[in-house]
């Protein structure tokens, strides 16, 4: 079982938040990597009748989520996602590879944006009955094995267009110099129209939205480190001006960078 040691991104107030919970991430076996990006397990125990609300800026992936009373498929999320933790609890999650569930979806990915569905809608009538008992399993290794066994039957080869969608999302995520759809077109050697068509059919969110989201990941990283002022961040990330940065930040995260720091 291979742990995922890649940098955690998109977590608001990451340093202050991580004391409230224990997060573990694991890579899938190679044969499942076209279907699953990672397994993620979170446990918490918060005493004295307190609570912690965790806020994240998620990637455009579908997630299988097992909680105490339900199992859901969460669609791509277009805004900050909040989750309240109190007393003792946990969440067991599977993050699917971008575009990997196309053969299971009855509607275009855009339909599922910001929606949570009963897992039976996608994985069959018995899915919740089979998966809900995993909530009490205390071994990460056993959880990964059981989830892998359940999902293997849904693993099919990606089409060329699905691989193109995955490549475009990876380019945006991993190349910090991509600030516009024009830059993405130049890096990928595909036209803007082709890119927009691929995103519409296989991702459900626009390339412009995803570029802005990962740009904000960089802003959050710099704010977390606290070693740059706002003008430094504007220049580093090549925003047009400070007002542009503040507008992007508030539209996606809900508050201004100044309010975030406070």
Notable characteristics:
about 260 residues, alpha+beta, Arc Repressor Mutant, subunit A, 2 domains, 11 helices, 6 strands
Please report the distance between the alpha carbons of the first and last residues: 40 Å
Tell me roughly what share of residues is in helical segments: 25-40%
Nearest-angstrom radius of gyration? 19 Å
The count of strands amounts to: 6
Name the shape in a single word. Answer: globular
Estimated share of beta-strand residues = 15-25%
Return the domain count.
2
Tally of helical runs: 11
Topology:
Blueprint: H1 14-17, E1 22-26, E2 36-56, E3 63-66, E4 71-74, E5 81-96, E6 116-118, H2 120-123, H3 127-131, H4 140-151, H5 160-174, H6 181-188, H7 192-202, H8 207-225, H9 230-236, H10 242-253, H11 257-261
Helix pairs in contact: 5-7
Structure description:
By secondary structure, the protein is of the alpha+beta class. The protein folds into two domains: 14-154; 160-261, Homeodomain-like (Arc Repressor Mutant, subunit A), CATH 1.10.10. Helices cover 39% and strands 20% of the residues. The protein has helices at residues 14-17, 120-123, 127-131, 140-151, 160-174, 181-188, 192-202, 207-225, 230-236, 242-253, 257-261; strands at 22-26, 36-56, 63-66, 71-74, 81-96, 116-118. The chain has a six-stranded antiparallel beta sheet.
